[in-house]
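Batch job 17 of 40 flagged for manual review because the log was empty.
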Amino acid sequence: MDPALNPYNPGSGLMPPLLAGRSLERERFDTLIARVGMGNLANRGLIFSGLRGVGKTVLLNQLRKQAEQHSWLTVQFEGRREEKGDAGNQVRLADEFERALLRSKNQRIKKASRRLLLGVESFKVQVLGSGIEVSFSSPDQSPVRLEISLMNLVEMLIEPLKGSGKGCALFIDEMQELEPQLLSSLLALQHAAHQEGWPFFIIGAGLPTLPATLSAARSYAERLFDYRVVGPLGAEAAEQALAEPAEKCGARYSGDAMTYLVTEAEGYPFFLQVFGQQIWDIAQEKEFSLRDAEEAVYRGFEHLDQGFFPSRWDRATEKERRYMRAMVNAGQEVMDASDVISTLGGTYSDWSVARASLIKKGAIYAPERGKLAFTVPGMARFIERHEAEEL
């Protein structure tokens, strides 16, 4: 098949040709938009949690588009683990608020923006602690610096939206990476928005540990959001994600080929896109065969082994790698932490630093007390392949 016509889009946050299996999440957000449009502000934000590769970022991007189609003010932001202090996330968040203000298509927001920026040569927003520092200057004056709280900034942005049936949504990806101070401030902001009746909603996504992280930051977090687990696609949705893009380009899968790809992908959207891209480039005929599918999976895992998996493995120390190898030896998707220690030898305290570091790096997580699992689907198989290559 012609690679230039390949319809599949594997990549971090890239929109697939068909967003299959996420209708419930999209409908839930559409309901939120509709309720705000009718003046009902008694709504909660949304939190999506799940393993890497299930399409959380793609889902956030889609929901943001839905909000913008209804003239909502949207702010999009990705949390990052900072190695050199905590200021980075705060500065980026403030910058995104600034960009949202400037690019908004809502006429009320645009009028407010023009009033705010009238005669301003430069406008810069920087978060300092729990506040926002706004620096600006015009040609005939020295730079002026103002500091307002994050809550006051949002209240200022919300004011033009009151009574319009529109809202403001802050989309936060990798939310578990936010430092405790900023996370706590954002939860307090959402809590205040509920109490004051502001049409402001945080829509967040992160690893399976995110709900517990939010509850630890603020005890009332469990009541602030509608929590949704984003998991692998079911067989029907996985088949749809592969079949429809190919059919629109005049190709199709044999039954055996489809079954094999869906089974090997285990329902993970990212893997489906990788395998779909590979089988398109491999196939010589418009009907993809089982042999094409087998080669696509082989090449697909080669591709994943060069980037998706090593990004976690390469960051681990040797002791952390030993810990992950012991997890693989447990032979289960979710294993007992005691079994890992039994394989390693020693005591819990001997391995507590390695375990905590792997959790901090986002390589593993504890789905419940005394249990462990990888955050990346297929990580155990990668480690087995990697170890075999080392022999």
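Reviewer: the log was empty due to a logging misconfiguration, but the result itself is present. Confidence is low (pLDDT under 50) at residues 119-126, 143-147. Unflagging and moving on to job 18.
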